[in-house]
Amino acid sequence: MKNIAIICEYNPMHNGHIHQIKTIKKEYPESNIIILMSGSFVQRGEPSILDKFKKANIAIENGVDLVLEMPAIISLQSANYFSYYSVKILDKLKNIDFISFGIENEPSEFAETFNLLNQNKEKINLIQKKYIEQGNSFKKSYSMALKELKLQTLEDIILKPNNTLAFQYLNATSSLKSKIKPLMIKRIDGGYHSSTLDEYEFQSATTIRQMIFDNKDIRKYVPHSTNQLINDIVRLDDFSQLFIYKAKILGMDAQNIAGYENGILNLLINNFEENLTKTVEKSHNKRYSKSRLKRFIINYLLNITNDDIKLLDDITYIRPLSFNENGRNIINELKSNKEIDLVMKISNDKELNEQNKRLLEIDKMAYQLRNINFTEKYSLDYTNKPYIKNTLFE
């Protein structure tokens, strides 16, 4: 039986995700699907639209066998860190056969592009570094490097958001010399940044989130369980006053905060305008993308430092959020894996070393920050046990 992993955010889970799960099950009917899912915050630097426990339960109700929480520190980093350390965690499990991810081109075209870029990797990195030092953003510098090497025809493929992450996953498996193989599935939704509504049943998470904020009907585009649990919505703007209090009134230093660069905090303070959405809109430029600014804001609020990032090389803990009977069997197998520490309950962290206790502490703080307006949830991270779906009688 194959174990197939998905690195995901499910923000929220929609029909495109269901398509991926069904495609995996069609190709590998006896497989187990294990997901490493961002919890309270997502990689674009925003709070998850749904509570992580709800997201995990929805996943299990829709064909996933085991949900593992991605450490918050990973979910709040740039694409290369996000992908590398996510794959590193999956590799440590020692039981993953494939990693499945969506791409926006045909798999053969994607693989050919990856091989060509890999052949020119050192040259691209060198030229990209030059343009970054000139004040350009990471993405812009990459684009300029491709043009300088006359590889600009690849840009339409590599710089599509989902393809960018997919390339990073392949880079990570290569760097780690992992035995995990890629399982690429072509996406059939409107694309990561798509915000256009049409009559099809597949829409991007971006579109669906905006529909939720606008109180529009999303039932056509999401599984029933997602639609049922959409409440207690959280936005970045819920942290606006907390940010300005910490940054301007308390004047908390940011020099060792992950993602800090000289001037970035002052830029946000000077441009602060009513809420964080407007502030980011006013502050983003060729050097700082909106996502980078938002990630920095959350890292700053959670006091995630560069020293914390260094701890990721020795991360060992795995926290299951939900599973079915197949997932329970996988967990029992993982108990014999000496490279990982299973955290079934967040209060039971006594066996973790100090470095991993610190990383788990960030997860706790992330949950509390995400639910800052729902104080009744604060204790849930400590008291909640993994949701178990009994599939034997269904």
Helix vs. strand class: alpha/beta
Question: What fraction of residues sit in β-strands?
Answer: 5-15%
Distance between the termini: 21 Å
Percent helix among the residues? 40-55%
- Assembly status: single chain
Tell me the major beta sheet: 7 strands, mixed
Radius of gyration: 20 Å
CATH superfamily of one domain: HUPs
Write down how many β-strands occur, each being a DSSP E stretch of 2 or more residues.
Answer: 9
How are strands sequenced across the largest beta sheet?
5-4-1-2-3-7-9
Order of helices and strands: EHEHEHHEHHHHHEHHHHHHHEEHEHHE
Q: Which CATH architecture of one domain is right?
A: 3-Layer(aba) Sandwich
Under CATH, the topology of one domain can be stated as Rossmann fold
Calculate the mean pLDDT score and round it: 91
Structure annotation, total helices: 19
Explain the layout of strands and helices.
Layout: E1 3-8, H1 15-27, E2 32-38, H2 52-61, E3 66-70, H3 72-75, H4 79-93, E4 98-103, H5 107-119, H6 121-133, H7 138-148, H8 155-158, H9 161-175, E5 181-186, H10 205-213, H11 224-228, H12 240-249, H13 264-270, H14 276-283, H15 290-302, H16 306-310, E6 317-318, E7 320-324, H17 325-334, E8 341-342, H18 354-370, H19 380-383, E9 387-389
